[in-house]
């Protein structure tokens, strides 16, 4: 809880300060407060559509109750936002592993968002939980991607399966899953190339990776995690929309929340795409990945 607050410090300060300003000197929620609130939400990167949804809900509430004090506004906002966030309650909403192993996690996202770092952090969490992990370097497009993943595999001390640059990503994914099976590993995490600029290619590449892995594990991948950089705000929302068109995304990780006031983007993305945020990145270190706790997130915005 405290750690999430630290990670969200910039968003928290910004949202809370703007919100206090919006209601300063007012005793009731009127058109002006709602206008100001709309501005606060949009400037916190909640996104226009989701902001309007929230404002409408509050307008309805004002109409129904005739009078709504500004002191109640916080509480209502919290409820509305919590309702839009798709994550389950409580701090246990990370990935739940099926009985059957290996658990196959495919990770997608454009370069620079923190994909490799998130994979490293996740591998570390799985390992700490007593699970054995294999990494698959299926981003064969960039040599740097494989190198970076290799550094993480050494840091976390988990095996990595790779092939030469430019080799078929699906072949790497197959090898990685096969290696996981032969080692009796619990988890295999597949890194993929996130080249959004050619959506047809991306779509074909990701579906081929899935198809090939399914020869070994019929229900693989168990999760497709999209990594997004929260500090890019509405761009992150746009990327999420694009990736959703290319493949079925089942979970989101929002990185770099520690350095940004744009944390509101979690609300917009969750609402617009109906995909749960499962993890948030709150720093560059190995332990700076948190399971996304909806309650703590909402609380940290308004306290
Ligand atoms: P990739 O290209 O998507 O694989 O991105 P990387 O994992 O290499 O990360 C890009 C940069 O973002 C690196 O400098 C990371 O240390 C940094 N980074 C990743 N996640 C976070 C985070 O949650 N917070 C901060 N502050 N930096 C992060």
From TrEMBL:
Q: Which domain of life is it from?
A: Bacteria
Q: How does it sit in the membrane?
A: Peripheral membrane protein
Q: Is Ribosomal protein set as a keyword in this record?
A: no
Q: Which residues form the signal peptide?
A: none
Cytoplasm as UniProt keyword: yes
Instruction: State the InterPro entries in the record.
Output: AAA+_ATPase (IPR003593), P-loop_NTPase (IPR027417), Signal_recog_particl_SRP54_hlx (IPR013822), SR_rcpt_FtsY (IPR004390), SRP/SRP_N (IPR036225), SRP54_GTPase_dom (IPR000897), SRP54_N_sf (IPR042101)
Q: Which reaction does it catalyse?
A: GTP + H2O = GDP + phosphate + H(+)
* GO CC terms, sorted: cytoplasm; plasma membrane
- Pfam families with a match to the protein in the record: SRP54 (PF00448), SRP54_N (PF02881)
What's the Enzyme Commission number for this chain?
3.6.5.4
Where does the SRP54-type proteins GTP-binding domain lie? 276-289
What GO terms describe the biological role, i.e. biological process, of this protein? SRP-dependent cotranslational protein targeting to membrane
Q: Listed GO molecular functions?
A: GTP binding; GTPase activity; signal recognition particle binding
Query: Which amino acid positions bind GTP, per UniProt?
Result: 109-116, 191-195, 255-258
Which keywords does the record carry?
Cell membrane, Cytoplasm, GTP-binding, Hydrolase, Membrane, Nucleotide-binding, Receptor
Top-tier EC class: hydrolase
Give the subcellular location. Answer: Cell membrane; Cytoplasm
Known role: Involved in targeting and insertion of nascent membrane proteins into the cytoplasmic membrane. Acts as a receptor for the complex formed by the signal recognition particle (SRP) and the ribosome-nascent chain (RNC).
Q: Which family does it belong to?
A: Belongs to the GTP-binding SRP family. FtsY subfamily.
Which PANTHER family does this entry report, sorted A to Z? SIGNAL RECOGNITION PARTICLE RECEPTOR SUBUNIT ALPHA (PTHR43134:SF1)
Return the protein name: Signal recognition particle receptor FtsY
Name the gene that codes for it. ftsY
